[in-house]
Amino acid sequence: MIREFQADDLDQVMKIWLEQNLLAHPFVDPAFFQNNADLVRIILPSSQIYVQDINGVKGFIGLTDNYVSGLFIETNYQRQGLGGSLIEKAKQVHSELFLNVYTENEAAVQFYEKHGFIRLEDTVNAETHQPEYLMGCKVNRMVTIGKCAM
Fold it and tell me: Does Manganese show up as a keyword for this record (predicted)?
């Protein structure tokens, strides 16, 4: 079930955020995520967050306006449609979505492309100095719910 974030979810969301960042980004110094965890813990509740709750939080999507600031699913629940459901929720709330994804995180790039995102620009992350893509989609509600185009 997808629901809005509640203050009681913070510890589990942060656990998922740190574990999945470390697993998905072995090309980034782990200290980067570990050192930023306290800052993320502070700013995360000010974002629009939806969680996948299956007897507890198993994943979440964070939105800052129409920017996907994070999408993370616990390892044991990946590839079961939870991430796609969270993207669809974001598409219901916003008519246009953008995100940055590391180019080396090929699984994430493929996931977003599968869900209608296209590569808009090649960039370099200012903090990690890793190459990334700016990706985006515009939700075309006139054609089919959830379809994206740019």
Answer: no
CB proximity list for 110: less than 8 A, separation 6 or greater:
none
What phi and psi, each to the nearest 5 degrees, are found at residue 134?
Answer: -90, 125
State the Cα–Cα distance between residues 17 and 73, nearest whole angstrom.
Answer: 8
Tell me: the pLDDT tens digits for 46-76? 899 999 999 999 999 999 999 999 999 999 9
How many helices and strands (H and E) does the chain possess?
Answer: 4, 8
Please return the burial class of 62, using the count of CB atoms within 10 Å of its CB with bins 0-12, 13-18 and 19+: buried
Tens digits of residue pLDDT in 92-143: 999 999 999 999 999 999 999 999 999 999 999 999 999 999 999 988 765 4
Handedness of CA 83, 89, 93, 97 (dihedral sign): positive
DSSP 149: E
